[in-house]
Amino acid sequence: xxxxxxxxxxxxxxxxxxxxxxxxxxxxxxxxxxxxxxxxxxxxxxxxxxxxxxxxxxxxxxxxxxxxxxxxxxxxxxxxxxxxxxxxxxxxxxxxxxxxxxxxxxxxxxxxxxxxxxxxxxxxxxxxxxxxxxxxxxxxxxxxxxxxxxxxxxxxxxxxxxxxxxxxxxxxxxxxxxxxxxxxxxxxxxxxxxxxxxxxxxxxxxxxxxxxxxxxxxxxxxxxxxxxxxxxxxxxxxxxxxxxxx
Length: 246
What we know:
- This protein is α+β, with helices and mostly antiparallel strands.
- Among the domains are: 8-73, no CATH class; 152-245, hypothetical protein PF0899 fold, CATH 3.30.2320.
- It is built from 4 helices and 8 strands.
- It has a 4-stranded antiparallel beta sheet, with helices on one face. It has a 4-stranded mixed beta sheet with strand order 6-5-7-8.
- Helix 1 runs antiparallel to helix 4 (228-245).
- The termini are far apart.
């Protein structure tokens, strides 16, 4: 090989020049140009050796590039993982903050509802308390009307009173039931029928001095007088007294 050899292609690069007078050769790869020193004259250079050296140099360059790329990739993965952790931490903190705010708003809303309920209850109590005297008066008026238009014309209250008096006093002998003349005239048969079921004998007697709302139950042991109007009035008086104390 007495002349310069140019552009000899290897697997990983091109041999661009071989010096005749100087013991070196220049090899160009895809990324660099490398000079390889040799001791033998150019005429004795083995092309296979040159190709092998060029391959080694090219492989080294490729390996260096791969290592750099791997390092860059690993660094990128670390940064991505860090960013992901930061995002997750920020998201968790944000969710926690939102949940706390929602919880606080729920507590505030519940407190407001409780306050409104309490205020409404107190207002209702005040209204009822203020209206109690009027309610009692209304009830009293209604009771009097009921007594005047219902009980006076009926015998239910009378039969109930006689029965309770006999049971309370434990009468064992004949008793006299004394009522107003009008009561006896209008209800004698009904009273006789009602008193048949009592445990003692009952004799009906009229007394013109009695009102249609009063009666007497007498026996040899004593007697009891009762007026339904007086009883109801006493009950209403006690109710009014309780309202005043309340």
